[in-house]
Amino acid sequence: MHSANRPGIIHCSTAVLGALVTLLAAQPAPAQDMARVRRTISVLTSPKLHGRGYTHHGDQRAAAYIAKRFHQLGLQAWQPDYRQPFPLTVNTFSEGLKVFVGRQTLQPGIDFIPHPTSGSFQGKLAVVYFDTLAFTQPAIRNQFLQQDLRQKALVYEQQIEARLQQMPELKAKLAEARASIVLTTAKLTASVADTQAPHVRLLVRAQAWPAQAQHVRLDVTAHLQQAYQTQNVLGYVPGTAVPDSFLVVTAHYDHLGELGRRTYFPGANDNASGTTMLLELAEHFAQPANRLRYSVAFIAFSGEEAGLLGSQFFVANPAMPLASIRFLLNLDLVGTGEEGITVVNGKVHSQEYQLLQQLNTSDVGVGAIAARGRAANSDHYPFSEQGVPAFFWYTRGGTAAYHDVHDKPKPLPLTAFPRLVNLARQFLQRLSRTI
Ligand SMILES: [Zn+2]
Q1: What's the gap in Å between 310 CA and the centre of ligand 1?
Q2: Hey, what's the signal peptide range on this chain (predicted)?
Q3: CATH architecture of 97-220
């Protein structure tokens, strides 16, 4: 509605204005710059960063961007360029990744994904369908066991994998196939591995597989990157009173990389969201007026998707004595919040959890906060194992996209994001005063 149609709104009395100003002044720190938040997320999820994995320098480009932001904020560094390098081994799929079956070309990420340990194969293979009667009928089982599968693509449904555990002979036979095509009705959820199998293994959406197809043409190229140099990115704001004690904010910036040349995992929620929140907190605490009594460190980890490798490396090679960390806050998957947030270790550190509940008032809060016990599900865990008190926050609700090509920036609601940043600020402020 045009403002000219709304008389009254401009006839504000001075008294009302005065009250309004007082009210605004009573509000907590200014709301988040959500335009900047969206910009950061769009940089981190852009195709130029190749899914923040270990091909086409995706991880290094992401690290360079984070280090540039740290530099602009004037964060102190322990190591040159804020980088803490470490090696990892990871199986990658950055080249050919095509499946032709019948008249169809299956799309990576949409119709199929490689199993993280999949090996390579280029060429045409005859298809063999696994007959589940082999489980119960010895004659059919023997027939199957006598086949030569070494130049075949074996197709079977994912549900049989549990039954195979009881039949090692059949399981071993299935593993002989040059390629395994595993049909699934579930969502395609990817991950990364540090080994490579000699054979191709693909997870294919059952609906995308043409029934009774007799041949399949594969172009699958897997590269096992051995001792690949990646890096954590870390910096800190020195404390005003007790600079050798630390509050630490962490978030992993790595993700699942690419599927062939055209498809990549943007990882908007996982974990461009947490990396962006870490940068927002760095923006805040780097301001001279907002400095805390304790030093505040910011660590963006690599290698999380490959098994918490960056945080494990840091814990083994810490920039500060681990005993000097008063509290650690890890942010991973914080892009939603329709159903509140979960605090891993909330049941372990009850005092800090109570403080959080206290700060989470209905006016400025993030909705329901739920506590969990210990869980080895993100980068706080290696610290917890070493006795460093730590919380891991993630948001609940919103998108179902997770470890797939649909985890994109636009649909990410960021429902609790500004309030969560505010809560984190207040939480760290209070910890700096009370511990
Ligand atoms: Zn993940």
Answers
A1: 13
A2: 1-31
A3: 3-Layer(bba) Sandwich (3.50)
Return the pLDDT at 14: 41
Residue 73 CA to ligand 1 center (angstroms) comes to 28
Cα–Cα dist 61/82, whole Å? 14
Q: Which residues touch 339 (CB under 8 Å, ≥6 apart)?
A: 367, 368, 396, 397
Q: Between these two residues, 5 and 47, which has the higher pLDDT value?
A: 47
Average pLDDT, the chain: 92
Report CA(328)–ligand 1 centroid distance (Å): 19
pLDDT per residue as tens digits for the range 405-414: 999 999 999 9
Summarize the confidence of residues 361-376 as an average pLDDT.
88
Q: Residue ranges per domain, the chain?
A: 31-91+226-434, 97-220
Let me know if the fold of 31-91+226-434 is the same as that of 97-220: no
User: Is the bond into 271 cis (omega within 30 degrees of 0)?
Assistant: yes
DSSP string, 148-179: --TTEEEEEETTHHHHHTT-HHHHHHHTTSSE
Distance of CA 306 from the midpoint of ligand 1 (Å): 9
Residue 209's pLDDT is what? 97
Which pair of tokens denotes residue 307?
């098994």
Q: Can you say whether the dihedral through the CA atoms of 374, 375, 379, 381 is positive or negative?
A: positive
Q: What is the pLDDT of residues 232-267, one digit of tens each?
A: 999 999 999 999 999 999 999 999 999 999 999 999
Quote the ligand 1 centre to 18 CA distance (angstroms): 49
Say how many Å lie between the CA of residue 114 and the centre of ligand 1: 17
369 vs 420: CA distance, rounded Å: 11
Q: How far is residue 226 CA from its own chain's centroid? A: 22
Confidence class of residue 278 from pLDDT cuts 50, 70 and 90? very high
Tokens linked to 255 = 């993700």
Q: Read off φ and ψ for residue 203, nearest 5 degrees.
A: -100, 120
pLDDT digits (tens, 9 = 90+) for 209-229: 999 899 999 999 999 999 999
* Interval between CA 110 and ligand 1 midpoint (Å): 18
C-alpha 308 to ligand 1 mean position (Å): 10
Is 3.40.630.10 the CATH number for 31-91+226-434? yes
Cβ contacts of 131 within 8 Å, gap of 6 or more: 140, 144
